[in-house]
């Protein structure tokens, strides 16, 4: 594989920044991102079905699939690595349709999500699963903005600096899991 | 032999300590396996991920923070010596109190629900998944495996036909790992149970994860099969975090049991690289 290209982007993301990123590129995110996982996605999509808005401005937004550990006294956030994305597949197309430009998790996505990423010109990014202590260092502030009763699954607004991700699916239909694994598979 | 009295509060305290240690300090066997993987990995992206994992567990250990945000379901294997008299209360309640204490005091994430469909968080990470075994002697052995959901979800069980044989078992294990891919946070430790009944085979697969990573089965024939599976799995190309590479699994552990003439049960319990297992003897 060629040298990995690195992009430094600001969240919320612009359409231009998204268009420049290809599957396999490293993407370092600075700015505001939102946490949401299983239960929060269920509620978000239910509220959209009732014609209510999302609890944050979706335009250019980045959603991080994470349920952090509780912070110790003096900590901004506890351990905060990505959770498995496939559980969000059922809800993702509806969320992308609102203008969300990237989602961060780990693992494979469904065919429907891959199509929706191309259709809505959004990115699927992953960060290193299990590296929650390391990733938490890039989170400089955190506050709950919705669904507080969901505990670790509440929606949080995070301020991040150089949050490290790799692009798996770009807006052109690229698939880095398929490419990367094909390159190393032995007969 | 005289009966030895042991207060269950000691079990509560031991469980509380073990669940925290498991989440903050990666065991030496897993650290060694990751270091060897770093040597073996040819993919630059794969090597970078393995380096991140080393940095991650170093931060976790130094700062006493969980290495992964999913601090797991507490799976507790407890072996009680026949010559031990447990006093002071109910053993299972004592274990659950220990889980609640450890997860609360350690600022670990509470991920357990009261009911699989009503889905209300219990708030203290109970119930623990408890396996109790009565063994000879006057000691109590406690092992905990803090089992993350991402890898657990990619685990599978099959009731094969006897004619499927080793080839059938092999195919099922490899297919399960290939299907898990990046979802399960590779490099993985693959726990395999073969034999027994439907309920026992899952237990065997889970229990095999308690063995130090890479320690072969004491049965040379099965040890060779573990090696064969590891070699095949590492040909898949999945690599660290599924981004491609030579190291998909760090080890394969198989535990076996006799079974019915009609049966060939096989279970694959997949474990992520944040393999949080700790044990103690009281």
Automatic annotation (TrEMBL), chain A:
Key word Lyase present in the record?
yes
List the Gene3D superfamilies hit by this protein, alphabetically.
Fe-S hydro-lyase, tartrate dehydratase beta-type, catalytic domain
Name the Gene Ontology molecular function terms of this record: hydro-lyase activity
Q: Does the record carry Lyase as a key word?
A: yes
**Any matching Pfam family:** Fumerase_C
Q: Where is the Fe-S hydro-lyase tartrate dehydratase beta-type catalytic domain?
A: 11-179
Keyword terms? Lyase
What family does this belong to?
A: Belongs to the class-I fumarase family.
Descriptive protein name: Fumarate hydratase
Origin organism is Caldinitratiruptor microaerophilus
From TrEMBL, chain B:
Family annotation (InterPro entries): Class-I_Fumarase/Tartrate_DH, Fe-S_hydro-lyase_TtdA-typ_cat
Instruction: Give the source's domain of life in one word.
Output: Bacteria
Query: What keywords tag this UniProt record?
Result: 4Fe-4S, Iron, Iron-sulfur, Lyase, Metal-binding
Pfam families reported in the protein's UniProt record = Fumerase
- Extract one GO molecular function annotation from the record: 4 iron, 4 sulfur cluster binding
Q: Where is the Fe-S hydro-lyase tartrate dehydratase alpha-type catalytic domain?
A: 13-279
The family note in this entry says: Belongs to the class-I fumarase family.
Q: What is this protein called?
A: Fumarate hydratase
